[in-house]
Structures are given as C-alpha cells and as structure tokens.
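**Polypeptide and fold**
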Amino acid sequence: MIPLRDTERSYSTPWVTMLIVAVNAAVFLFELSLGPWSRNHLIATYGLVPARLHLVSFLTSMFLHGGWLHIVGNMWFLWSFGDNVEDVLGHLQYLVFYLLCGFAAAATQIALSPGSWVPTIGASGAIAGVMGAYLVKFWHSRIVTLVFVFVFFTTVELPAAIFLVYWFILQLFNGAGSLESAHASAGGVAWFAHVGGFIAGIVLIKILPTHRPYQRRPELYW
C-alpha cells in the first residue's frame, strides 16, 4: 500500500520537512556522483555499523540511501505525514523530534544486532517516528492509498489508524522473521529500526508540547 495523500489540512508551510527532503536528495546525488568503491567506502564510514560504533554515524546514517527506490519511498512517506506533525510541533521542535526518532531507531537496531558489521542507512527509522506521531494526533484522518488488486491498481480511502497500525504490524512480523538471520535483518531491511522509530514517535509526541492546528486563528482569504 502506498499513501498518496491524507485528508488532514496543514496550517503552516512544512519548512523543516522540505529541508529534510532537500538534504537527503542532495546527499543521494552526491552518492551517485561517486564511483562504486568510493560509494561503498562512504556508506561503510558514515553508515551505522553496530559492531564498530561511532556516535556521528547515528546522525549521518539517516541521510544516506542505497538506491532510487529507497530514497523515493522514504521521502514520499515523509512528505505524506510530515507536514501535519510539523504543524502541531512547530518547526524547531519537529526537527529535534525527527532526529530523536532516528536515534531511537538506530539504538533499537543496535540492540537487536550488536555484533553486525552490515552498515545500516536510511531515513526510514526517523520517518517511522513521524508516522507514529501522526497515528496519535491524526488517527481520525483518512489516507488516500494506492493498492494492488489482482492485476491492476486502484485507490481506496483508508482510516489513518488502520493504515498505520497495519504498517506497524507488518514491520513487527517481518522483524520477528528476520531474527532467524545472524544480523536481525532480512532482504536488506532493518525492520526493527522501523519498530523502534515508530514507538519513539508515539512516546515523544505525548511528552512534547503540541497545539491543535484547528484552534489557531482562522486565515483571511481575499
């Protein structure tokens, strides 16, 4: 299932979400400019390697991606859910929230595969946190979703709670299945980073001060 848009109105320009997308895109284009050896060296150096931890990699790994599908998928999910979460948190607090979710996702992955030498990269852990926060604040919203039915695609409007809980359960089950491997990952996906980020987002959005966008002073239209 691919989210196309939500029905929840955003009351402010999501500057931080736009900045995060831009930085990720710029870093990915830089990766593409490198040769295979240099690209692998970059990922090995700045990706999160549980068996060889560097604190800076908690941050740098969040802005590296392994391919077009990886970055486009991540940025699309961030764009779909990030504007509303940024709306209720405010720009600066949202940035701190996003990074904390990414750190929590990384810590979860390390806890499940402490001896792994496989670099973990990508923004999906932090974005999972955004999705967890969206579930808490906008569970009543509806998500216009692209789904595959037999041999064709169609769109359906799903309650946000159903879409996000289904997504989380999928990560949890895939993560449980991946425990059979040596590094708690399967198919190159750090499932438990998604789980950790999602839970962190739920916890943090309940702790951090927020406001309800619809309680703001109404705009005037001319």
Observations:
- The CA atoms of residues 54 and 141 lie 40 Å apart.
- The chain has one domain: 2-210.
